[in-house]
Amino acid sequence: MEKPDHSLELSREEMKQYGYKIIDHIVDHFETQDTKKPVTIASREEMDSLLTEEIPNEPTAANQVLDFVMQHVIPNSNIVSHAKSFSFVPGPSNYISAMADTIATGFNIFSGGWAASPAAAELEIVTMNWMLEVFGFPTKNGGGIFTSGGSMANLTALVTARRIKCGQDFSKATIYLSDQAHSSNIKAIKVIGFKKEQIRIIPTDIEFKLSLNKLKNAIAKDRLEGLQPFCMIASAGTTNTGTVDPLNEIADICKEEDLWFHIDGAYGAAAMLSNKKPLLKGIERADSLTMDPHKWFFQPYEIGCLLVKDHNWLSSTFTEKPEYLRDVEGNESEINFYDHGVQLTRRFRALKFYMSLKTFGLNTFKKAIQYNIDLAEQTEAILRKSRNWEIVSPATLAIINFRFNPIDRNLNEKELDLINQNISNKIVFSREALLVTTVLQGQIVLRMCLINPRTTIQDIQNTLEKCEIYGNEELKVKV
Ligand SMILES: *Cc1c(COP(=O)(O)O)cnc(C)c1O
């Protein structure tokens, strides 16, 4: 190649050839991903020896760099969209959104302020309004912002809650969340400067739901001590078990006690589009709600979302007016999203969500989400029929926790922990499926999160059969 020179340009033909080659790789991956192994295992030493090099001062042929990346970089990552990727929260993604991201990047659209990209801001408003409607938030005053993910959405919510409820002085403020709440909430609370003494972790009951009584007691105790309870974070689908806190009852408490009601629905909010909607009753009463399109709305990374009851809460929290932005202030309805959150320069995240929702239609998303919920329930039925398996937490919003515990073996807790840990280690080491453990009430259990619409019951059965083989091997070792 003659170029690139200081202009960082390629010729028209070079760009096309390079771009088409990348599209071929991506399409090939979408078609064949489920035949690959979902798990990658590599040490720092291995990656060092493969990838470390001096900064390249001189050019390398574009195709050579691309080939190197496709050969050495891309394969050394887990395939989170694989049908047998069951752990953490899978990222099934979809092709329309992947291409939409390519458009957003290709045109390098600045999605910070209205003046720079009125249509991008409008699409964010339009897509946000769709979500406000799905979750029963007011579309007239309600609002929100697309973020990098659920963590950033939670952080944005808590900064807003603190400003509205505490103003400048939050030295006496206390905040409440359950022992099953996602770690990103604690992280956010610490990032924004709360001390450990201001955080109340409320225990959950036997079903992993926040205990209302313990919440009430904690609030009352703090009031007696002259502290200022200001915010409650509930989970709409915990990451561990899919459990939804009693949202309606928590909403009542928040109203009575004048607390900000934040719901972290990063995992489970999508279940609003399924027959589990009644479980989420009360979600519409939150002051702020985190949902995470790059989880159960099948978007590629990164897109999270924060919805709020009143969009003015965001602008009054995040608006700063530096001199160099004075020419770009528009009128009120023309939203500058840099005034609604932390980021100034923002990529055009709304585009992929908009294009995929429009292309497939909301009904297709509903079918996919319902399929996932049904799949977890079928998995539970299979496990319940077996003499080898015990359900530890039943199928809840497409998550199920279980362990190998043959009925006639009378294994003790320590043995069970070891066996189930080893089953997971072996299946991961085989790289055939990503299935890791979690800990529930002190027990090591296997956890499946089934939000991939391409996962079949056969994929699950094959994996369970492998697990049983490993489990039986462990029993032999024991004898
Ligand atoms: C995944 C998750 C988060 C964090 O979201 P990211 O998109 O990973 O930043 C927060 N809360 C819950 C319940 C989650 O499942």
Automatic annotation (TrEMBL):
Top-level taxon of origin: Bacteria
Key words, A-Z: Aminotransferase, Decarboxylase, Lyase, Pyridoxal phosphate, Transferase
One Pfam family linked to the record: Pyridoxal_deC
PANTHER family found in the cross-reference section: GROUP II PYRIDOXAL-5-PHOSPHATE DECARBOXYLASE, MIP05841P
Protein name (Swiss-Prot/TrEMBL): Aminotransferase class V-fold PLP-dependent enzyme
Family under the similarity heading: Belongs to the group II decarboxylase family.
One GO MF term: carboxy-lyase activity
Essential cofactor(s): pyridoxal 5'-phosphate
Modified residues (N6-(pyridoxal phosphate)lysine): K295
Natural source organism: Aquimarina algicola
GO BP: amino acid metabolic process; carboxylic acid metabolic process
Gene3D superfamilies recorded: 3.90.1150.170, Aspartate Aminotransferase, domain 1, Type I PLP-dependent aspartate aminotransferase-like (Major domain)
